[in-house]
Amino acid sequence: MSLPNDINLNTYEKMASMKNMFGNSIIEILKPNIKTHQNESVIKMLEMTKDKPEAYMELLSVAIFHKNFAIIKYMVEKFKITEGDSPFMNVLSFYNSILPDNSDKKINEPKENYNLIQCPFVIMSGIGGDIEIFKYLSKNNLISNKKELGIVGLSKKLKNSFYSNIIGACCYYGRAELLEYLLKNDKYDINILTTEKKSKSGLRVGFYKEYTGLTPAMLCVVG
Q: In Å, what is the CA distance from 198 to each residue of 86, 123, 159?
């Protein structure tokens, strides 16, 4: 059964009753609205949630990736989110969440083929590239270790996940304004080298590295 991306406000109560039936698919329905800043319907859905479901943290990551400050602020304040709530995401969900829904770079494979990874808020903010969001996350104790490492993206051919710091994230996604702000206001390792892990689970063939040992400057080129 397919459901529309754009949620009519009159249907949000029905969606709530369908949550048990569809499980995390409700998250997938809300993601496009967050990406395109159609926030009213998203907030209506979140208003009916009294607890802090772990799966909903994925919505916060999408809001950070796509600079949706309204949803970030709403979720942080409503659910009292802390740094320890940084979400665990399927690698494929992570990658596709960064991209616009109409991107031709999206990977159309079963999510079950990919491993689960944790996404630190500091790396998310580097991918999103918004200075005010970075400041807000830091002020609200979602970022304590600004030099933490985390997944930045997938290698182009082999789809391995590669890891760097927030500087590497900014460089790979071309977030020049945040990069300049970070380098002016703190000391970061600008020569840190990427590490790499296989993203797909159950692979029996050898693991071939593609994006290992790249500095942030080199990530500017491959990104």
A: 21, 19, 8
